[in-house]
Design goal:
The complex is a heterodimer. In chain A, 67% of the residues lie in helices and 0% in strands. By secondary structure, chain A is an all-alpha fold. By secondary structure, chain B is mainly alpha-helical. Chain B has a domain at 84-185: AhpD-like (Up-down Bundle), CATH 1.20.1290.10. Chain B has helices at 38-44, 53-58, 62-77, 85-99, 102-116, 119-128, 136-149, 157-165, 170-192; strands spanning 23-26, 194-197. A two-stranded antiparallel sheet of chain B has the order 1-2. In chain B, helix 3 (62-77) packs antiparallel against helix 9 (170-192) and helix 4 (85-99) packs across helix 9 (170-192). The longest helix of chain B is centred in the C-terminal third of the chain and has 23 residues, at 170-192. Classes of the chains: A mainly alpha, B mainly alpha. At the A-B interface, helix 2, helix 3, helix 8, helix 9 and helix 10 of A face helix 3, helix 8 and helix 9 of B.
Chain lengths: 221, 205
Amino acid sequence: MSAIIPDVIDHLVGIRPGSSLDRLRDQRPQARENAQKSYVALFHPEFPGDVTALERYAVAAFVAGLHQQPYVTNFYAAALQKLASAEIVDAIDAEIARSSAKGPYGRYPQGPLTVEDEEGLDYEVSPDHRDRLGSRLAAALQHAHLLVLHPRDASPASLQKLLDAGWSTTDIVTLSQLVSFLSFQIRVVAGLRALVGAFAVESTDADFVQIFTGALASGAV
Amino acid sequence: MTETTLSHPDNREPAAFTQDELGWLPWLEPFPVEELTERHWAGLVDASRAKSPYFLLLARDPDVLQARTKTDKDIFYNTSNGLPRAERELAATATSRANGCIFCASVHSRFATQYSKRRADLQRLLDEGIDVDIDPRWNAIVAASATLTKTPISFGVEQVDALREAGLDDLEIVDVVNGAAFFNWANRLMLSLGEPTPPGKTQPA
């Protein structure tokens, strides 16, 4: 396994040490440090339990793909490619394409909010890919899709499907944290990139323009 | 080992957004208090959280829980500069309203009311939803939080410009982004690992 990137959010946004955005992030040093520690605990865990690295990166590549942020998707897809066969990688890519949707949607408990219910895809992995990925990973992808796009539809039955597919209670906590953490990390990256972009548009802050054009040059945008 | 989900057939889940104090019941067995190790206690951060079924369930992966909690605290409690606490709680409430997390919205609308003294405005956000018209600054924070909550990602320069026009500086914008992004983490855990209970029924998570 290659060395752990010291700050993945910086890496994905393109923040350089000493830049204005670096100094802004430093105003919340605990949040910055612990966002990274969360990433490390999920993707380079000291105590991995029974959730494999392949499962962690396969779900991450899938979750990133649903968010359609190319730089984050590429990052997790590249990590998965180091661990998984081309068959698995292709199956994940195909399932991202099959299951893309606009969220958040879902239903509320019956009552005054029922008028706000929004129907959407109740996703299942294709039978072919289920065979290729195995029922345990397929169940994780289905649960990840629920969490990313329509978390208010969650129920004990959703968790039972994971238990039935071989996920323990502790595994489910790890899986839930992984998907939910990525929903955070991807949005922090999107927000900070938008801020970088707003600076670049103004073209008054050479520091930010440098970051932005650097990111463009690296093909990350 | 056979593990099952927990069900609560007698619970009547709240069916509307509210600022009342709700409880929360887990759908999976929390980690047994009597078996907590040093590493679990470190994961809980505050010993008082061992009373909460939500945190005891998350304590099954203590390293992630510890990092999650410390991220949360700095985003919301580090108010030496940047966005006022009330408006960080507003971002959390708007995000929870957009995702549909009745429990999270109840906690953070209460905090927003406590710090802003604007209970009626918070209640309108809960009742009318994220398109509510409050005032230009709050509208911009609500809209930015709700846009950042969408999947696929559609948050961009336009939202940053709108926050600036509403008077937010760059650190305040980072605080909105952090607050809304964090609740996209918290809402998913709260919504998918258990269910809220009506006011006064069980202890709050």
